[in-house]
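[Meeting: bench + compute handoff]

Bench side (C.D.) handed over the final construct sequence. Compute side (W.E.) agreed to return the predicted structure before the next meeting so the bench team could plan truncations. Sequence as handed over:
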Amino acid sequence: MFINQLELTNFRVYKGSNTLNFSLDQDANITIVAGNNGFGKTSFLTSLVWGLYGKLMVDVDDRYRQDISESGGYKRYCEKLMNRLSYAEAIEKKKELETGLEGLNMIQREQLQQQIDEVTSFSVALRFSNLMIPSVQCRDLEIKRTYNILNHKEKIEILIDGRPNELTKTAGPEIFINDFILPKEIAKFFFFDAEKIVSLAEINTAEEKRYLSQAYAEVLGIKKYTDLKASLEQMRFRIREKSAVKSDRATLDKLSKKLEQNQRLLSLKNDRLEEIAESLHIKKVGSDRYQEQLIREGSAITLDELKRLREEKNILSTDLVKIRSRFNDLLELAPFAMLASKMMEVKAQLELENSNSASAIALLESRYELVAAAIKSGKGLKQLDQELTEQLLALVKINLLPKEETKVDMLLNFAPDQQQRFFTVLEQLRNSYSKTFRTLMNDQKRLQSVFYTVNRKLSDAESKGKDPVIADLRKSKERIDEEIKALETERENLQAAKSQMDNESQSISRQISELSKKVEVEDVDREKDVTAERLIKKLDEFILRLKVKKKSSLEKNIFTELNSLMHKADFVTRVNVVIEGDLIDIELFDNQGRFIDKELLSKGEQQLYATALLKALVDESNISFPVFIDSPLQKFDKAHSRNIIREFYPNLSAQVVLFPLLEKELNLEEYQWMIDKVGQAYLIKQNNKYNSGFHMVSPENLFDAYKSQEEHV
């Protein structure tokens, strides 16, 4: 599958219509889209995700979920997606057109309304080729998503060979894209910011692991079989429900109604949560406006300085929370670090116990008995007299068996797994603990100092001035802040109630499932039920074999990719993919068989790990889809960059699109390493901060064109 063309119309910084054609040459499969920070590289990546998934983009990556939440909901988020200049022009054009509504007939009004819709909308269009759609002939396919900022209507058109197709209508556009183009659960492995994918190395919580495991299962092809199994189980439930005896049916009906009622209530609570999110957004904007007026009335601080201070405070707060969390983790080992001498005594005692354990002594005694028997038999020895034999046996016994006074009391008597855990903790205390502890302490002191300074500046800015204007502004701000607090309290209560209802629904679902197992199946449905049961057992066996197969294959792929990218010899000698139920985790081990904590890797090493993982997953998925990478070389040193540029990116996919910062993360020398693989090159030109466009250049002249562009800035 190839993406031939992307067309952005009034999307973020791309004012008007902007078209970009991708390289389709398999020998030169890389397309370069270069531009300075703020020119629109991230907007480009966002346009691809929004164009394919729309509201469902929250399932692609947490950053989109966070952006939409912080915007106050999907509608508010989409308003921000429209180019600001185009937005202002659209509002003016709308007013101008609406003045001509008087005296128009119905047809003329519809035509005028169509013009208004066109100027108040933005869109993303993608054109594909080389697709394989079962039972459908397809030379090319176009997906166009359009959003109107006035009526908040979103429209998506899918054309196969230039015409609508019954399949897209029957399945629905979102399902069609998810099933035949690219599943949203795994899109993160094809659209990613290479600097931010280090988050894959920092997955810790059960929720994060569960979310990522779902994506792994989708990529590895496991999910479709587990979904099939779930469908068969649901079919068996329906058969049992239909065939239930009267008393069981009454209970099932009651539980089903309760479950349906819960789902309706959950839907209402979700709607209210969206309303609260939008209200909070509006009120927070009002609160910020009052605060800005307060600052402007009471001090000389500018709005830009205020904004910078706020952003810096938020970043510092987040960093402090992370450091405190890691610090708390280290504190668990603090008592052991404080008693280092005692730990060494325990180590010495364990070593003594190991050498003087009952099994070791028993082995020595059995050896002594064998030696004594051999000496007494005299085989292979000259005839010894009784006295010499006894002296020789005494000498062997003294030197072979431990003396009574040297025997060690078994004070600890650790099991092997307890010993292993103890030595692991001791090794950590001796090597990395103190260094990590000191680093965290220094970082925390530094961040705390900076945070207090920033917070003090903000507090000073807000406290100045006590005239009536400022008093009135403060009163208004306090009122709106109270409303915000009340809304946040309501949101927390709703979320708690929603969580409780979720748990109740799960409990009801389990009761329904258990009850359905007890009901009798009628003869007419018995064969279906038996067949479904047999298929479920076969699926269980098949899924288990598939997981084992995928586990081995993924371990091999990740190991191969890691060692081809890293310049440290034998840094990782074993990769272990852990599959436990629905959870999939990945463990790394060094050349001494020790577990490697991915959180303790450097940022560059974390990015290498994440990059190798992505490549392995793309290979395992067997999905032929273009890969788009922002900041492709941000954290790599020169040695790693050479491997990445020459070996990794050209072989990542049949079509690769890179968004590098020229001269910063990709210089001319490094570019020469890949130039024979570059089929298309573009520079993003910016007329102003709200108006960017694509400028196609020859791959050979990319850096000359970039320097020329910089000289004219």
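W.E. noted at the follow-up: DSSP finds 22 helices and 14 strands in the chain. C.D. will use this when planning the next construct.
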